[in-house]
Amino acid sequence: MQRIYVDISVDYSKDGTMMPAAIKWEDGYRYEIDRVLDVRRAASAAGSMGVRYTVRIMGQERRLFFEDTYSETGKPRWFVESAIPSS
User: Fold this and answer.
1) How far, in Å, CA of 10 to CA of 78, rounded?
2) Which of 6, 51, 69, 85 stands the most exposed, by the fewest C-beta atoms within 10 Å?
3) Is residue 87 one of the residues assigned to a domain?
4) Is 57 a domain residue?
5) How far apart are CA 81 and CA 67, in angstroms?
6) How many domains in the chain?
7) Phi, psi (5° rounding) for residue 23?
8) What is the pLDDT along the chain (87 residues), one digit of tens a residue?
9) Which domain holds residue 55?
10) Which pairs count as long-range contacts for 19-26, CB under 8 Å and 24+ apart, including other chains?
């Protein structure tokens, strides 16, 4: 697995709860998140720790991570787990 860093649109509730609303992919295409199915602190198979959001996008489940442990950039970032293509 690898991490693909993405831009995220986030909705915040009045109590400060953060929920992702859409993903802007590397090619600029925007995918609306249909539903957030689960939220929990978890390790990624791509080798990072953060808050894992299991989301449904266009009928498919995806794992979206908020890497809040301040990676090498010194800033929190969002990524999607993706299988490394075989050559």
Assistant:
1) 11
2) 85
3) no
4) yes
5) 12
6) 1
7) -115, 130
8) 888 999 999 999 999 999 999 999 888 899 999 999 999 999 888 887 889 999 999 999 999 999 876 666 678 899 998 876 644
9) 2-82
10) 19/53, 20/53, 20/55, 20/64, 20/78, 23/57, 23/64, 23/78, 23/80
Please, what sign has the CA dihedral across residues 49, 51, 56, 58? negative
The number of residues making up the chain comes to 87
Q: CA–CA separation, 3 vs 65, rounded Å?
A: 9
Is position 44 within any domain?
A: yes
d(CA 31, CA 54): 15
- CA angle 45-53-31, nearest 5°? 105
Of 18, 44, 20, 39, residue with least CA distance to 31: 20
